[in-house]
Amino acid sequence: MIHLGKNSTSRIISKGIAAASSNNTYRGLVSAHRKATGARNFTNCDSLLIGNNCGAHTVPYIEAKNSSAVFEHEATTSKISEDTLFYCMQRGLSAEEAVAVVVNGFVKDVLQQLPMEFAVEAQKLIAISLEGSVG
Amino acid sequence: MALLEVKNLQVEAGGKKILNGLDLSVNVGEVHAIMGPNGSGKSTFSYVLAGKPGYKITGGSARFEGEDLLALAPDERAAKGLFLAFQYPLEIPGVTTMTFLRTAVNAVRKKRGEAEISTPDFLRFVREKAAALHIDLEMLKRAVNVGFSGGEKKRNEILQMALLEPKLGVLDETDSGLDIDALKVVAEGVNKLRSKKRAIIVITHYQRLLDHIVPDIVHVMAKGKIVRSGGPELALELEKKGYAAFEQAA
Description:
The complex is a heterodimer.
Chain A: E1 2-3, E2 9-19, E3 23-32, E4 40-50, E5 55-64, E6 70-79, H1 82-90, H2 95-111, H3 116-129
Helix pairs in contact in A: 1-2, 2-3
Chain B: E1 4-13, E2 16-26, E3 31-35, H1 42-50, E4 56-64, E5 67-68, H2 74-80, E6 82-85, E7 92-96, H3 97-111, H4 119-132, E8 143-144, H5 150-164, E9 168-172, H6 180-193, E10 199-204, H7 207-212, E11 217-222, E12 225-230, H8 233-241, H9 244-249
Parallel strand pairs in B: 3-10, 3-11, 6-9, 9-10
Antiparallel strand pairs in B: 1-2, 1-4, 4-5, 7-8, 11-12
Helix pairs in contact in B: 2-3, 5-6
């Protein structure tokens, strides 16, 4: 994200999912140029872990070339807990349906912003790539 | 045939024995109360019935309509008609309660070989059940249990029980964390679910809840088994004497 104009604002929402033995890393540069006074950025990095052998890493880069720019960064990491899955399964959802519900809730902020066709595709893609990730 | 037949159930968790030969028989149409001090194994019993992972069954059996309950996965037990109202319902961020309810109802219907419920029918169904529990429909637009008050969480549990129409409802300390008014609303909701086709097990510490949900049979649990059973008067005796007298008998 490069800020060139005065008082320009931006927002980054990143949602990463790591399952099985995968690792997920966020790297993002936010830069404000010399003339971009009063530039503001808010970055939100959420990671979701499925299983015990995966990891999430967040590496934000910040480059402020004027002293009035304000950059904010927030990061969370959560894990789909066995208790949450059990709660869903007690309500009749299979293990895979339970994961799908929790994951869909997690990515909702981002998918909501996508055009309808993409959102549907993305949702299906997530479901397919997570197939068999809980055993 | 009893709806639920538990015989000599023995359960360990983390190498520690929690249930020590628990026997319980529940028939359709009955409301049972299980009372007992902290650590007597009440919640463990409810979790074992529902199939929570992390417990090791070392002996005994639990049959639901004659079928081996302990061999089934949690979702299969739910489909068979076992419902557990959690003492601490879990939060699912980003998933609206309405979506969750609908997913659950349809998952159970699918497993029971029924058709999925249509959206208008489902909305009517939810509205009717929610009104009975004084649940505002606004609440159902919020994420599941996220930021819910204690009373809202418990009402949400009972709403789910009403929607899933189980044969056996197990209420694990549904009265904990409720003020007197909320307790009445929840108890009324449970009483509406009493039916000749359904059994309910109420797990509680206090007689107070049983003033509102009057049980047919009261069991006292201590050190991982049921040490005494009797009518509603047993709960009153317990309130007077405390649990200590019963623990010695165990």
